[in-house]
Design goal:
mainly alpha; 190 residues; 71% helix; 6 helices
Length: 190
């Protein structure tokens, strides 16, 4: 068996991103209006799994973007998202352990996640591996969500995760550009 193809890598990245988002939606539903019922550990675990699957999906997508010519932006985005996820998990663990919720760690997650989404959007614009409108939307969404969250107009810290879900859907639905048609090495004789 040979090395994985770009199409296989796109499927893996897309599947991880969509699955991660689906689990984040479940986690958000478990949190409800912010009052933590007795099952708070389930909520926390669902959130952690969703964030880690999204991180793995973004890492797989970074490989796809690198193979398409991006050498820096998606890698920086993956690192920013990784640091953000670690901060979120630490904040959640402190909250679960009876400590207190630390808004600054959540805020840092949102800022880093938005920086990551903007970096991925710029990489998409640069490589054109996905439609340009999606790259532009990612950059605009990241900037707008950062401003809305930091000004405390938007209160949902998982807002940045809508864009990776879109990345995943498009990776799964849109076929890779097949490139120019193949020219046979020998002419067909009829």
């Amino acid at each position: 068996m040979g090395p994985p193809t770009l199409l296989e890598e796109r499927r893996v990245a897309g599947s991880l991103l969509v699955t991660g988002f689906a689990i984040l939606v479940v986690a958000a539903a478990l949190y409800g209006d912010g009052a933590y019922p007795a099952g708070h550990a389930w909520q926390s675990n669902a959130l952690t799994v969703g964030l880690v699957l999204t991180l793995l999906g973004l890492t797989a997508f970074q490989v796809v973007l690198t193979d398409s010519g991006d050498r820096l932006l998606a890698r920086l985005g993956a690192i920013a998202y990784l640091v953000g996820v670690v901060l979120w998990i630490v904040d959640d663990a402190l909250d679960l352990a009876g400590g207190q919720f630390i808004f600054e760690l959540e805020r840092d997650y949102v800022v880093l996640a938005c920086l990551a989404i903007a970096a991925y959007g710029a990489a998409i614009l640069r490589t054109r591996i996905l439609p340009r409108w999606l790259g532009g939307l990612a950059v605009v969404w990241a900037v707008v969500w950062t401003v809305l969250y930091l000004s405390r107009i938007a209160k949902a810290p998982l807002g940045p995760n809508l864009i990776p879900a879109l990345f995943g859907l498009v990776l799964l639905v849109r076929r890779s550009d097949p490139g120019p048609p193949r020219v046979p090495l020998t002419p067909d004789v009829q």
